[in-house]
């Protein structure tokens, strides 16, 4: 039985120590909010109210690693401590590979994660509720919900079973045994026209809020290639440059344009997606984005034997090749 | 006009007999929810509440996310032809929306049909009626009572349905659906005020979350335009705009040209969000809302201050979707209460 | 139902390059529909010009109403303005309007009008002094301060020379840095203003230009004794619909496309400080 109040206490002690010793200027962690869900925060030394609310539980459903790309300027050159669950830990490696952060600036505090849970299933719970979990599910104030019933597919098919970090909290209580992703199995059972029908319906629901892009810890491009918005325009941009800004996906919410965005983003995630699933949880239209991403992820893993975020020293997947690379990508999802 | 008691089946029969109308209902809830035709759903819903609300609000039925405004043709002789599309009108009745969603049409009417009206919304609205339903269950993010509404509010509804066993008690609120009301009167039986009141009272449920009075906080909020709290409020914001897209009253839009080829194309209206930086970003690179907190501030103040000043009603209907679906847990009700000084 | 979005297809009957070609090119176009102005307007109002395929741009009508034509001075900025600048005499353009409020030129009768324009900001102000020049006897006086980076960037240059020659207005041009051949004032417009010290008695000042120009001018006008209700400006905001529905041009509860872009300083100070000049 994992007791998250105890684990939160251990985490708090580590973060407090790091801040007090000056090893880091800021700690990026979850803090307990009015409800069960942990809220990301950047905590400086002296912010005792926030430090005392540092928390870890399956209800910490956001990715702390996302704070890095969102606060580039504020974090530049600073030494930071960052609390990461398994998928976020891998995301950090991707960010290290791509020079978004430097290893010497980061103290990594890993929390071993068995999966995430939704606070919606516990409408009467509060910040003070007792949260524990085990192999079967999550218990809040005695009420239990099984892991499968939260519906977080990325967590149910998570493969991460080891954590290497500067500090580690918690022990795994749930065995992660995934051989085949159920959604990919379903897709490979469809004909080509069946798959088109399936995805056309999904692309039709996209409202282009770009939440998937914004919450993704590794979608960290300063200027998004697919829809740069106005990120490239400064007072110095010439008229000619403005007329040459490429927006690959037109802003109108046509299914064809939505498809351009969703599919291109999935391709740009090749060798980089750590399967945290936050994009899918965030999508307001309930689009199962992991389907698109896992088609690419599985391809990269099986055919090119490359695991996103495994080795921070490895060259990025799309920026490297090997003489052994197959000439055929293997086609349909496996 | 006294309320009328009619059986669910009786009402279904009346709807089935309407020749040139389609009847839409909310079906499914949350992210899988949508608005479908009664002919597809088969039966009318017998209750509504936070647990039956689709994540998508009903505004898209008459104010779609994409709309062709005109098509243009650049002829070789230098002339330009511009044509307006036919505004396809299907007489539509929306049945079974909770008061927070019904009230959204009252807000949208105030925002889009005055002075120079938005032509497409206005035309469709003339052919669109709302049969609201009293709400039987508030959710954790609901706060309709704080913005001048309630689970039994009839604002925005043309007819109002109060479920009672196998029947509905229907009230004629606005007179816009008089033709339908006549059919209901003929089919059902009159109900006295004494008989109606206990049914109504069943739905007059408390809404315990985020208790405040938006109207009373308006002046306090106005004074805190430059308050540092705005930065704290938006510290986790990722400017995805979900709060505005799922909001039943948000209606901001963009207009863009889409080229079909070098000589022809269309101009489309597409939904937009004040949360994207390019919403107010000028080509000169000047942007009055470059900082993220200024954009969240705009959203909150538009809903709780500016719209109230212009139209005398809150733009927010307390439906709670922005709170429930925000990927980073930003809470507008919390924010308003903090700014208004009631927390 | 009249479609609020549908532009009139009008003709460009004249074009004038105001500045040298390049990144800050300004081109004035004259627009007519069947030999007349496409619609009536008041000084200060704007119109949405369409360059089909790229979009629309809200541009101030650069001149008072005369029934015959409308002129727009387009600064090269991006896709739409680039497209409009590529159009030549005889070609067609889409136009809808008029939008926005206007300069209260009737309220200003009998007063001394002080124009302070910087760069392309002089274009909307042209609707004021154009009107004043035509009804010169209705006004106590007209002084025009106008400056640009260099002489090649000054717009309406020939027109200003003509105005000076006619003696109907006091025209004071300036350029930021000295140039061979330039005999006028050298320095920012606000420095020119400071030197000339126009009286604030029975006067109204209207300014428009880049943000820094407006900020400095407002400061200077205050020092010269102009009160808030004697100072007016016209604001720039991104606009799309032009009739108060798309939601983006608001300043507080006011939409700049319907209750603006013309504001007195008194009115501006009542609005939330969002992208406003320093006042």
3D architecture notes:
The complex is a heterotrimer of chains A (334), B (343) and C (279). With 334 residues, chain A is α/β, with parallel strands linked by helices. Chain A folds into two domains: 2-169, no CATH class; 182-319, no CATH class. Helix content of chain A is 34%, strand content 13%. Chain A is built from 13 helices and nine strands. In chain A, strands 3-2-4-5-9 form a five-stranded mixed beta sheet. Chain A has a four-stranded antiparallel beta sheet with strand order 1-6-7-8. In chain A, helix 8 (192-205) packs across helix 11 and helix 11 (255-268) packs parallel to helix 13. The radius of gyration of chain A is 21 Å and the shape is globular. In chain B, strand 8 (159-164) and strand 9 (167-172) form a beta hairpin. With 343 residues, chain B is of the alpha+beta class. Chain B is globular and about 65 Å long. Chain B has 13 helices and twelve strands. Chain C folds into two domains: 8-99, Translation factors (Elongation Factor Tu (Ef-tu), domain 3); 112-234, Rossmann fold (3-Layer(aba) Sandwich), CATH 3.40.50. In chain C, 20% of the residues lie in helices and 30% in strands. Chain C has six helices and 15 strands. Chain C has helices at 79-86, 122-134, 157-166, 189-196, 211-223, 265-269; strands spanning 8-17, 26-32, 46-51, 55-60, 70-75, 92-99, 112-118, 141-148, 170-175, 185-186, 203-208, 231-234, 250-251, 254-255, 262-264. Chain C has a seven-stranded mixed beta sheet, sandwiched between helices. A six-stranded antiparallel beta sheet of chain C has the order 4-3-6-1-2-5. The longest helix of chain C has 13 residues, at 122-134. The model of chain C has no long low-confidence stretch (mean pLDDT 95). Chains in contact: A-B, A-C, B-C. At the B-C interface, strand 4, helix 5, strand 11, strand 12 and helix 11 of B face loops of C.
